[in-house]
Amino acid sequence: MHTAISAKLINIIAAALMCAALLVGAGSGAAHAANRIVARVSLSQQVMEVSVDGRPTFAWKVSTGDRAHVTPTGSFRPTRMHEMWYSKKYDNAPMPHSVFFSGGYAVHATYAIKRLGQPASHGCVRLHPDNAADFYQLVETFGPANTSIVIVK
Length: 153
Known about the structure:
By secondary structure, the chain is α+β, with helices and mostly antiparallel strands. It has helices at 2-25, 30-34, 129-142, and strands spanning 37-42, 47-52, 55-61, 74-76, 80-86, 94-102, 105-109, 125-127, 147-152. The chain has a 5-stranded mixed beta sheet with strand order 3-2-1-9-4, covered by helices on one side. Helix 1 (2-25) packs parallel to helix 3. It is globular, with a radius of gyration of 16 Å. The N and C termini lie far apart (35 Å).
């Protein structure tokens, strides 16, 4: 039920932002600039902060790469999305609500929620299943071209 409510809220926010951008921009291209998502992942803090149109909207605990596995840093755009993906590299491990951003690296849900807030993955950015569903819905609603995933030390 939480996911359904969140999805509705996200769609309402998206529609409101689109209307506001259209009213303010009226054909000047501002509508495209106004509808942006930036997901900033801090490896040192193990947090992902999501801004919508420059406004902080969500802050979620994550798990990124552990000592033996690096999470790439930099600025990325989503390259593909899958509601459910199974890792081809790690024994078909489930990766619900995957938003891939660099090769085999993705932001996705984890069932190891007790490990959130500390490095624990093979390099991906893991989220609580509810948060991963919300992020997936945001990217789907706003579009990968309007989404940036920024990973910093």
